[in-house]
Design a protein that fits this description.
The complex is a heterodimer. In chain A, 8% of the residues lie in helices and 34% in strands. Chain A contains two helices and five strands, in the order ββαβαββ. The chains are: A mainly beta, B mainly alpha.
Chain lengths: 99, 111
């Protein structure tokens, strides 16, 4: 498996819509986070949802988001984070998160 | 409809797990059999197909149905879609079972 991103990379979740079935929740689309780990490779849910099992497995990442970046009116601790597992085709490079 | 994360709601979150009814256990088992990778001829469906079927339920039905009721609706729709079962045949079987249940119930009530 060749993974496009590595641990620590800043990524942005695609803001596109989803027809049929996908595993990317709406609330996280368009948000920026950091790759926390590579979970392995799995087949594309969008294909599996129609019984297409022949596609190549894709890297799945656990991406860590700052809660304040996800929820506009977040009132909890500023250090709170949220982890979401996302497939590679939903992620774009976002430069260094701390620049 | 299903993708409710972050959507404001007044609905109470049920945190207690209810004991499973026998039919719920059977729906779960049916899913295991249909997605079994070791099944001769390959699995009849994928977990993601089940999810697509659940997510395709009309919003009012999605809301009204319980967890395994949604699974069952999706499983039936998928098996009909794939031609594994015939919708008419299933409807007749359901009707026959309902009538049988009705008779048993009536007989029991007169005991």
């Amino acid at each position: 498996m060749s993974a496009r991103f590595t641990v620590g990379d800043a990524v942005r979740v695609s803001a596109r819509g989803c027809e049929g079935h996908c595993r990317t929740p709406r609330y996280i689309r368009g948000k920026r986070g950091t790759v926390e780990r590579i979970c392995g490779a799995f087949r594309k849910p969008e294909d599996l949802a129609y019984g297409r099992v022949s596609s190549e497995p894709l890297p799945l990442y656990r991406v860590r988001f700052q809660q304040r970046d996800v929820w506009k009116e977040y009132r909890g601790d500023a250090a709170d984070t949220l982890d979401v597992e996302l497939y590679e085709h939903w992620l774009e490079p976002a430069g260094n998160a701390y620049e | 409809m299903h993708d409710v994360g972050g959507r404001p709601s007044a609905a109470k979150v049920e945190r207690e797990q209810h004991p499973f009814a026998p039919w719920e256990v059977r729906v779960d088992a049916l899913m295991m059999v249909l997605t079994d990778a070791a099944r001769p001829g390959g699995p009849l469906m994928t977990t993601d197909e089940l999810r697509r079927g659940v997510e395709a339920l009309p919003p009012a039905e999605y809301e009204a149905l319980g967890y395994y009721q949604r699974w069952l609706r999706s499983l039936i729709a998928l098996m009909v879609e794939k031609g594994a079962i015939d919708a008419g045949q299933l409807a007749r079987r359901v009707e026959a079972l309902a009538a049988e249940h009705e008779r048993e119930h009536a007989a029991g009530a007169h005991e």
